[in-house]
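Researcher: Please predict.
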Amino acid sequence: MPVFNVGDKVVYPMHGAGIIEAIEEKEVLGEKRTYYIMRMPIGNMKVMIPVDNGNDIGLRAVIKQDEVCQVINVLKEQEITILQDWNRRYRAHMEKIKSGDIFEVAEVVKNLILRDKEKGLSTGERKMLENARKILVSELVLADDSDEEKIEGLLEETFA
């Protein structure tokens, strides 16, 4: 039974936010299942998510518009918690991204941007920053009923 409906704005952890355009029954690898067909605003990609896996993978509604300011406040906080050990730091950041929680993702973006300014980032961390930033921007675009340029500008302003 679908929890979300066509037109709902949802977040797919590790991938970002999108809008459910359809709920369709499809046969994949010989198995018929019902899928959410979600369009991602950034990259204009479409994703099929099995309805019965929605809860297991952490599919959730996009934050409300009034929570956008709270996310920006997380980004503005100067207090950062960065582990010195690269491996531990990478794993801790990955766990936050996997959580699907926008505040955790915002913290990862903030930590990595500030670390990049201080010491630079490894290739792995740079890729992680790009991914986390894309996830963050995709949800803020939908939550704020905005566009990618405006949100990117807001992030640039926050870290200027």
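Model: The beta strands are 9-12, 16-28, 31-40, 45-50, 60-61.
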